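Record type: monomer structure entry
Structure origin: computed from sequence
Chain ID: A
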Amino acid sequence: MTWYDEAVFYHIYPLGLTGAPKQNDYSEPVHRLNTLLPWIDHLKKLGFTALYIGPLFESAGHGYETTDYKKLDSRLGANEDLKAFVKACHDNGLRVIFDGVFNHTGRDFFAFKDIQENRENSRYRDWYCNVNFQGNTEYNDGFSYDNWGGFNLLVKLNQRNPEVKDYIADVIRFWVSEFDVDGIRLDAADVLDFDFMKMLRWVADSVKPEFWLMGEVIHGDYSRWANASTLHSVTNYAVHKALYSSHNDHNYFELAHTIRYTGNMITSATHLYNFVDNHDVERIYTKLANKAHYFPVHVLLYTLPGIPSVYYGSEFGIEGKKERWSDDSLRPYINLEDHKNDYTDNPCTVLIAALGAIHRDYQEELSYGCYQELTLTNRQFAYARGSLIIAVNNDDHSAAFSVNTPDGTYRGLLSNTTVSASNGTLEITLDACSGEIFAPIRAGKTVTRKGPKEQCSAKPVTSDAFVSKTNETALRKPDSDFQKTRPSRTNIKPEKSKESKPKASVEIPDIPYSEMTVEQLQAVILAKMAKNGPITDQMRKDVENNIWHDSLVNWANSFH
């Protein structure tokens, strides 16, 4: 039992949230990080117990082209600001993890600058991969090198170089000694060298008890990265995709299958990092075809196996659409004062606060409780986590169904209503686009936790307000047909997947990866694999089993 297995994370992209300039002129520090101190109280109100914040360290632009690993980005302030911020988080019971961008550096990093100046005579020429003084780049460096994602702005470190390993190990020790950080989210972990990650794990185990390593992994067998030798956890992009598409397609079979699929990859000791949006993907409120699905999506996020995380601003239900050449709309400035009434008036915020309180009070069940499917149709899904029963409905009408469960009285933790199970059956009725968490009331005892009304100073959480917003903070009432009774579910059959596996021969068009179909992206990846050597049956199977467009785009971009 560790703090991170029981955590509820909040994710902040600080350069965006603080409104920092897009480019760094390396001038005197501007203490924007201090403007995030009031957000600590906001996190406490909503029940978060941990903060993932980053990137934080000096960089040229978006933060992932590091210039100095030991200096807070001057657009955010000075090291003393970060030290004070982490201490304030700790004083308020919040753990903190930083972004660790160790796969690559920026072009302003001292080792790369030395190569530019001294070329073949630079003692750092082997700090990077495949430095070739017969080549060139668009920057007219007079040499070429490996990069990340095809961007020469991101120069790939040689993670097998002992000096590079020692340097990064020293960075981690510095972050702990200087800032008292509790863990690291490893950027681009799916392309990190595995021996390098073993070194990181050794350092993590030595610098601080329960120091957490979580890696950004887009696709593949998660157990390759999350195990006893390398990382503690990885980002669960598979469940991320299933959470929104199972609602957009009215197909809970996809979600249930994905939960089984990812669960079979890992041991029971591994808790994957679950999320519905982050700084690289569109906001959940934008991705959902029916905005009312915000309610069941977040009930699932907080109750499925794994560690839940909410990206800053999504607790307010803000929009954010990914643009072709910019992620700025995903990483906006937000004035917390503009949302001071959301704790009572915004149903998105009220729901997140209620779910945070439930996760705190039922931590044993929601962190370690056995997961068991109980009912599954296209539009209704129920499962157990320990003694809790979670049920969700993605239909536009109310739904009634039953689940097998021990007899007794259960309280709906979101609605504060009670229902009884008899003869091993609990009859459940859910409103349109809603969900509920049922907890047994023990014999002779009542539920001691306060309901959402007391926790949030708001009405009990219902799905009625989760439709579409007329402005950024006010949601309109649901359409009247949401209240109609759902027809019998006896004839419901699994809906066929809209995606198909790759054909034997797929023409690859000369268009950006983001505009390709799933089949075309799979063909691109197989073609790129073939250039590196023979394709095994397992490699082909891994590609064919990946039917998630965003994942395939990232996979295709990962080849050099």
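Annotation 1: The chain has a mean pLDDT of 88.
Annotation 2: Residues 369-483 form a domain with the Immunoglobulin-like fold (CATH 2.60.40.1180).
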